[in-house]
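Example S7 (structure tokens).
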């Protein structure tokens, strides 16, 4: 069994958004000290934890704002289950980071499920024309990839986090679910701009 240093645990904890020290150490032990594999296993577990908690009631949260140069502003309601988590400084900071994301990227939709059928159909018509000369067995896969890529920047949860392109906003929320042990959801957001 590999010896796990405190520095390695700290690095893994930083990479995973502050997952508990015990969870980090356990993942490192399972992966025999390989930090890359331990990170993968923790992210996989975070998704499973978030899925289990997805039906719990949201009864608390935090409203955060971000204003850029007095010309662009955003408000975000990040919801959770309890006031204990809703008042946590790290939770409040996450809400602020998401408000900054909204101000910077101006997403059209919160989730992929909110994209209207008309918008999907219009995009699909354009992309079908683009792939008409591709082999039939590849068309469906190419179309799916083009649709996902097209809507990625328009859907808040699918966007790459502006401060770390390796993570999506959904990854940040999933990490918070694992960290706080509660269901967490971006319930609503609004963006204002003096330039529009």
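Recovered sequence:
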């Amino acid at each position: 069994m590999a010896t796990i240093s405190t520095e390695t645990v700290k690095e893994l904890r930083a990479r995973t958004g502050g997952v508990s020290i015990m969870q980090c150490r356990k993942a490192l032990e399972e992966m025999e000290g390989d930090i890359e594999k331990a990170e993968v296993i923790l992210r996989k577990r975070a998704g499973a934890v978030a899925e289990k908690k997805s039906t719990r009631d949201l009864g608390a949260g935090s409203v955060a704002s971000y204003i850029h140069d007095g010309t662009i502003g955003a408000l975000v309601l990040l919801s959770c289950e309890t006031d204990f988590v809703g008042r946590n400084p790290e939770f409040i900071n996450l809400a602020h980071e998401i408000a900054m994301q909204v101000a910077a990227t101006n997403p059209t939709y919160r989730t992929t499920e909110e994209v209207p059928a008309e918008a999907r159909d219009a995009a699909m018509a354009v992309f079908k024309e683009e792939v008409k000369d591709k082999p039939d067995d590849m068309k469906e896969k190419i179309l799916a990839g083009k649709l996902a890529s097209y809507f990625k920047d328009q859907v808040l949860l699918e966007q790459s986090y502006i401060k770390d392109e390796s993570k999506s906003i959904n990854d940040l929320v999933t990490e918070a679910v694992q960290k706080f042990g509660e269901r967490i959801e971006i319930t609503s957001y609004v963006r204002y701009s003096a330039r529009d």
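Notes on this example. Residues 117 and 123 are 10 Å apart (CA to CA).
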